[in-house]
Amino acid sequence: MPRVLVVDDEQAIRDFLARGLSEEGFSVEAVADVATARSKLTSAPPELVLLDVNLAGDDGLGLLSDIRRTSDIPVILLTGKGRETDRILGLKMGADDYVVKPFSLGELSARIESVLRRSKPRAAVSNTMDFGRLRIDTVSREISVDGTVLETTAKEFDLLAYLASSPRQVFTRDQLLEQVWSSSSAWQDAATVTEHVRRVRKKIEDDPDHPRWIMTVRGVGYRFEP
Q1: 94 in the same domain as 144
Q2: What is the rounded distance in angstroms from the CA atom of residue 128 to the CA atom of residue 130?
Q3: Which helix (H) or strand (E) covers residue 61, if one does?
Q4: Which residues pair with 172 in a beta bridge?
């Protein structure tokens, strides 16, 4: 039974989600503030977090930043209508998806299941891929440059490994959403791919603005240059 942590300062929403998602087969714990959420994340990490961006007196995006510094726990943002800037910033900070209030329980449940599927590690395509200074080890799931192992999230590794497994092949953002995230643009914002590419480039490239390995094909998508 997947464990979900709900962080929302509205009692009615917490009660609605706790009751409804429990009926959908999830184990739900609902808290009202960031401090309690941090405690729960430390003592009993959930498999997914539903996070209200606009917590009264607290910063939901600040909690998202804390989560991303320490773990790959999937996070779905709960946002209000007209809060596009929050959604874009949240995706750039590492959120996996967002749902706009008011939302249906059916939609939310489907999005949770989709994000949980995407968060599972992909099968390795081969043991190692060597490209001179860059080495990708699909057994240990490590990326190294000049022998130095880099810190990467699960999805950063999966994205680079997938691109590198088909050198010079161009992939659209929709294709990458489908193959790396097991999703589609109907559920997942294509900006997720763009942001992950930016983050991977920052880690592996000497000059991320003039990349050596992950190339942008304007109007199409990305390719890996061996």
Answers
A1: no
A2: 6
A3: helix 60-70
A4: 221
128-131 and 97-100 as β-strands: parallel, antiparallel, unpaired? unpaired
The closest of 2, 31, 1, 26 to 14, measured between CA atoms, is 31
List strand residue ranges (DSSP E) for the chain, in order. Answer: 3-7, 27-31, 48-52, 75-79, 97-100, 128-131, 134-137, 142-145, 148-150, 171-172, 214-217, 221-224
pLDDT in tens, 121-161: 544 444 789 999 999 998 889 999 999 999 999 899 999 99
Buried b (16+ CB within 10 A) or exposed e, 58-86: bebbebbeebeeeebbbbbbbbeeebeeb
Q: Among residues 119, 153, 169, which one ends one of the domains?
A: 119
Q: Do 150 and 102 sit in the same domain of this protein?
A: no
Residue with tokens 């995230």, as numbered in its chain: 181
Contact of 5 with 46, CB cutoff 8 Å = yes
List the CATH number of the domain containing 195: 1.10.10.10
Least confident of 67-76, 151-160, 198-207: 67-76
pLDDT tens readout for residues 109-124: 988 988 888 776 544 4
**Calpha distance 40→5 (Å, rounded):** 8
The C-alpha angle 49, 52, 54, rounded to 5 degrees, equals: 150
Q: What domain range includes position 11? A: 3-119
Q: In 10-32, which positions are buried (b, 16+ CB within 10 angstroms) versus exposed (e)? A: eeebbeebbebbeebebebbbbb
Q: Is the peptide bond before 102 cis (omega within 30 degrees of 0)?
A: yes
pTM for the predicted model, two decimal places: 0.56
